[in-house]
Amino acid sequence: MRVVVERLGKAYPARRGPAVTALEDVTLAAEPEEFLAILGPSGCGKSTLLGAIAGLIPVTSGGVFFEGVRRAGQPLTATVFQEFALFPWRTVRANVELGLEELGVPGRERAARARRQLEQMGLHDFEDRFPHQLSGGMRQRVGIARALAVDPAVLLMDEPFSALDAQTRTLMMEELLGVWERARTTILYVTHNIQEAVFMADRVLVLSRRPGRVLASVPVPLPRPRTEAMLGVPAFVETADRIWRLIRSQAEAALVEGGA
Fold it and tell me: Is the same domain home to 134 and 165?
């Protein structure tokens, strides 16, 4: 599925004074099966952009369009959030089945699809556990399994690993890439971590400081499958450095403006 964002703008009304413009004139396209990372300074509207694509946040101007063939009953998007967002009173399998219930999938098929995703995420022995009985990494695996179980045309991920420790984060990045390489779902992945974006993505979209605009689209010239050994190769270092210079230029501009 191809995702097209055309001249999208979002302003939040304020009780007093002018509205706060989070995004302005954002235009981008995520190609079918592409892994597109979205990066930018804090407060640049990354999560707002993802919410607008998901249809969760109404836009002020512009629009979001999806191009491609969608199977009957297939949702356009599913979202994995930064918070684990699991229901504590539901078992692991019941949490994964939640989206399928909303789609009206029969019980036997729900259970089979949930078990298939849990097995893929290495959680087949934990389907009857409750969220509080799992580690942070395992809870996020459940969240990913829940999103994938509905077989979305586009998977949206909003800083899904930011709450994890560094070791678990690296393992989860590798696991997600393995899942994506098998499913080849279009992914839009919001992160504030430059190394994570370069390691995961085919391309990194860099947003400016607020109001967020597309500052640059940076291709990642690394082969797949990605391995941890690539973190030190010149192509990785040069791409990460290019993105850092873009982010730093925005921070420096903000400081100059603030001191003016």
Answer: no
Select from 135, 152, 169 the last residue of a domain. 152
How would you write the pLDDT of the chain (260 residues) with one tens digit per residue? 999 999 999 999 988 888 899 999 999 999 999 999 999 988 899 999 999 999 999 999 999 999 998 887 789 999 998 877 899 999 999 999 999 998 989 999 999 999 999 998 889 899 999 999 998 889 988 999 999 999 999 999 999 888 788 888 888 888 899 989 988 899 999 999 999 999 999 999 999 999 999 999 999 999 999 998 999 999 999 999 999 999 998 877 766 665 54
| 52 in Cβ contact with 8 (< 8 Å) | yes
Give the span between the Cα atoms of 163 and 247, in whole angstroms: 22
Q: Which residue is listed with tokens 């396209």?
A: 29
Give the contacts of 188 (CB within 8 A, at least 6 positions apart). Answer: 3, 30, 36, 38, 50, 53, 154, 155, 156, 157
Residues 57, 169 share a domain: yes
Q: Are residues 166 and 144 in the same domain?
A: no
Give how many domains the chain has, as a whole number.
2
